[in-house]
């Protein structure tokens, strides 16, 4: 990462910023902006920012006011981070509170205040006892409210129907709002965020409407009980906040490269509030989503994540003075012999990740290529109905996924009332509350085991069809739920094995009779990390997020073992994580740093024009008219044109961007007298010699990049790919002895890489 940062900075210094940006001395509207679905020029943005900073520094010495303005400019980055952290933390807190209430609304309502969740309602009741803490007179199920019955078949059926109806209502509202007001609010958002941070422009994806609709619909879809989470979409929400505050400061609004530094920090703040993991958020942004991550962005990401976490902690949405719902404290150390089941859970996570990615991408491809994609509302309603019908009878799928994970992570204390803690107690036991020995499983544990097994199968299948629908849908929580269920079952199995066979050689040294040896909740935590790692291929940030999430600092080694194993197993079947797979499915121009290119091809094999194709469209330095250039622009859709001395010599002078040519000609026609269709355009310092009666010539040297990046025709493609990755180029020109031969764009590089990997090169749709 540091090499990439260094190379970009050095390249910015190399690129001749003074000559490149001399047109800024005479600015005209919209100069330096990019069209939708195009890639930015990182070198150019770096040069523009260097020039802007140099100008501010020189002006700051002229007066006190200019010095104050320079200080404000220097501090604007920290102000933006503060605002992002405050808004992201506030939105996350509001979402958590709303989800808690609306999830409980499917089962009943609070009579004293309908906006209270079940837990809040019973807090306020004076008639609630500790043993019956989930039951209180103020909270009534729908059957009690409508037909005054709490038990029996009719009450169960009525509650079942109300659960399904509320789920369908929430899902219908969500998909309708997304479809009508903000189509970009659907999905996780992380694949698109990764693509945007690599330099791609998707206008509206981080807009105000997207922010508003994604926040509202995220509450609706999570409350509907669908197998999805809010963590991934919260990264999108935080980046929308970052984009909004960036637009308030010209330093970021007028420079797409600087804007992406802010968005990288916003992504860190998003993960910080999603998991209550500020450090994990910074590492997630660095490892998983960011393309260009200088040291300054690292500090600012840390600050934004800190402010966001502090804001969420102030709101305290879970009422437990923690940033997350599933904070746990285990009282038993882990033992070396347990590494074997931990690694087995890592293998399971890798296999689950591979299965999920392949099945989900196949289903999403089918959705894109068949009539199924034309009926997004119907698809959401159908999946919601199936989810609600199957989920309600099983207590482990009926509750929210976050609550399920919380219960699976929990250690069984003396006061736990969960079925998972229904062990047979020794009546003579006189031990401290925190040190309960391993006990034989009771009926409740065995019931919970088969219910968890059914829930696991259901979650695995339904998540494949849920992720990718036209609603906000995160993948972190469903993946963690799959792993936590598998892990808890393995943990109970190991616990019972150790209890009944403590004389076996593997248990003899560390598990004596009457000792608290095995913590099933720890296995659930390790399984959750393994499955999340298998799907996303995260490693370092995943482990840090998990120990921040649970407070299990001493369990880093089991988490690391599971995360690394799941990545190795998943990588054996394919290098792509779920986000990279969706990027390729959508045809976005994303050059992944992790991909290796080892084929022995040359620049001449990839450049255009190829044999049999028409010659390269070029501009000459002083012999084309305005009409000639306008015709060339109209007849082609290229992003820019090389400028040569003449068509005969093909000696390269520079490169002119299409958009800036259009703006420059339009501006010249409006502001300069004598500019007509047959005016000669020239890119040289001095105008060409023209006949006396010829129209006024148009000088366009200010829009010419005099130092475009070039390679020779015999440059290995391995080097070219590396250059595109590390410098963030849009295109590079191919020359031989200074003579222009062709051009290689980012799309050409991606299509060549796809071809070499035996994939469809036409799947790369954007440049």
TrEMBL record:
* One cellular-component annotation, GO: Golgi apparatus
Which stretches are annotated as coiled coil? none
The keyword ATP-binding appears for this protein: yes
Q: Record keywords: Membrane included? A: yes
Please give the PANTHER family that the UniProt record associates with this protein: CHLORIDE CHANNEL PROTEIN, H(+)_CL(-) EXCHANGE TRANSPORTER 4
For this UniProt entry, the molecular function terms from Gene Ontology, in alphabetical order, are: antiporter activity; ATP binding; voltage-gated chloride channel activity
Q: Which CDD domains match?
A: CBS_pair_voltage-gated_CLC_euk_bac, ClC_3_like
Question: What are the subcellular locations of this protein?
Answer: Endosome membrane; Membrane
Protein name in the entry: Chloride channel protein
Any Pfam family hit = CBS
Domain CBS, first and last residues per copy: 607-673, 704-762
Which ranges does the record mark as transmembrane? Answer: 75-99, 160-182, 202-222, 234-250, 262-286, 339-363, 375-392, 448-468, 475-494, 522-547
Q: Which PROSITE patterns match?
A: CBS
- State the membrane topology: Multi-pass membrane protein
InterPro entries reported for this sequence: CBS_dom, CBS_dom_sf, Cl-channel_core, Cl_channel-4, ClC
Q: Which UniProt keywords apply?
A: Antiport, ATP-binding, CBS domain, Chloride, Endosome, Ion transport, Membrane, Nucleotide-binding, Repeat, Transmembrane, Transmembrane helix, Transport
Which family would the database say this protein is a member of?
A: Belongs to the chloride channel (TC 2.A.49) family.
């Amino acid at each position: 990462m540091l090499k990439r940062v260094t190379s970009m900075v050095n390249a910015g210094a190399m690129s001749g910023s003074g000559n490149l940006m001399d047109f800024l001395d005479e600015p005209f509207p919209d100069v330096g902006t990019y069209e939708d679905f195009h890639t930015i020029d990182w070198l150019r943005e770096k040069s523009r920012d260097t020039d802007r900073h140099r100008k501010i520094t020189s002006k700051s010495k002229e007066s006190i006011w200019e010095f104050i303005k320079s200080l404000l400019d220097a501090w604007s980055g920290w102000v933006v981070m503060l605002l992002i952290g405050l808004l992201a933390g506030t939105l996350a807190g509001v979402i958590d509170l709303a989800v808690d209430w609306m999830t409980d609304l499917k089962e009943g309502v609070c009579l004293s205040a309908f906006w209270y969740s079940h837990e809040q309602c019973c807090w306020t009741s004076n008639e609630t006892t500790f043993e019956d803490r989930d039951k209180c007179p103020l909270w009534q199920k729908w059957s009690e409210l409508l037909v005054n019955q709490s038990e029996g078949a009719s009450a169960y059926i009525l509650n079942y129907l109300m659960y399904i109806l509320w789920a369908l209502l929430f899902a219908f509202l969500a998909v309708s709002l997304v479809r009508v007001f903000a189509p970009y609010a659907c999905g996780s958002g992380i694949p698109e965020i990764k693509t945007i941070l690599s330099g791609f422009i998707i206008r509206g994806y981080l807009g105000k409407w997207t922010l508003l609709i994604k926040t509202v619909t995220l509450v609706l879809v999570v409350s509907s009980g669908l197998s999805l989470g809010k963590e991934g979409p919260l990264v999108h929400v935080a980046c929308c906040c970052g984009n909004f505050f960036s637009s308030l400061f010209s330093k970021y609004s007028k420079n797409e490269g600087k804007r992406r530094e802010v968005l990288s920090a916003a992504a860190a703040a998003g993960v910080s509030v999603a998991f209550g993991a500020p450090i994990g958020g910074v590492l997630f942004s660095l490892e998983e989503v960011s393309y260009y991550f200088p040291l300054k962005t690292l500090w600012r990401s840390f600050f934004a994540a800190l402010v966001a976490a502090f804001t969420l902690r102030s709101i305290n949405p879970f009422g437990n003075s923690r940033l997350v719902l599933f904070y746990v404290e285990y009282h038993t150390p882990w033992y070396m012999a347990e590494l074997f089941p931990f690694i087995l859970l890592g293998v399971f996570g890798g296999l689950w990740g591979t299965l999920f990615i392949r099945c989900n991408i196949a289903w999403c491809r089918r959705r894109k290529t068949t009539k199924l994609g034309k009926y997004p509302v119907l698809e959401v309603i159908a999946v919601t109905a199936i989810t609600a019908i199957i989920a309600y009878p099983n207590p482990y799928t009926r509750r929210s996924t976050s609550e399920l994970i919380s219960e699976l992570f929990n250690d069984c204390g003396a006061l736990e009332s969960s079925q998972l803690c229904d062990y047979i107690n020794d009546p003579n036991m006189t031990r401290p509350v925190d040190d309960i020995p391993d006990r034989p499983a009771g009926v409740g544990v065995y019931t919970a085991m088969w219910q968890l097994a059914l829930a696991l199968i259901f979650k695995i299948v339904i998540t494949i069809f849920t992720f990718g629908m036209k609603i906000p849908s995160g993948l972190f929580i469903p993946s963690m739920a799959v792993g936590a269920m598998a892990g808890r079952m393995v943990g109970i199995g190991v616990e019972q094995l150790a209890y009944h066979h403590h004389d076996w050689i593997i248990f003899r040294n560390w598990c004596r009779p009457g000792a608290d040896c095995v913590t099933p909740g720890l296995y659930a935590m390790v399984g959750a990390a393994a499955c999340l790692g298998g799907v996303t291929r995260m490693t370092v940030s995943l482990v840090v997020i998990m120990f921040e999430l649970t407070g299990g600092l001493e369990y880093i080694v089991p988490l690391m073992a599971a995360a690394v194993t799941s990545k190795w197993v998943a990588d054996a079947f394919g290098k792509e994580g779920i986000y990279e797979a969706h990027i390729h499915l959508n045809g976005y121009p994303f050059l992944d740093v992790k991909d290796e290119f080892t084929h022995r091809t040359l620049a001449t094999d990839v450049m255009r024009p190829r044999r049999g194709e028409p010659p390269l469209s070029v501009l000459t330095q002083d012999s084309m008219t305005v009409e000639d250039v306008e015709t060339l622009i109209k007849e082609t859709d290229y992003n820019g044109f090389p400028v040569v001395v003449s068509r005969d010599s093909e000696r390269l002078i520079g490169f002119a961007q299409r958009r800036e040519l259009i703006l420059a000609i339009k501006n010249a026609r409006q502001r300069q007298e004598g500019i007509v269709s047959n005016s000669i355009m020239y890119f040289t310092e001095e105008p060409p010699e023209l006949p006396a009666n010829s129209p006024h010539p148009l000088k366009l040297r200010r829009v010419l990049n005099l130092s475009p990046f070039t390679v020779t025709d015999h440059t290995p493609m391995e080097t070219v790919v590396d250059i595109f990755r590390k410098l963030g180029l849009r295109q590079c020109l191919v020359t031989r002895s200074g003579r222009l031969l062709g051009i290689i764009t980012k799309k050409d590089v991606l299509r060549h890489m796809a071809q070499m990997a035996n994939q469809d090169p036409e799947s790369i749709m954007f440049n």
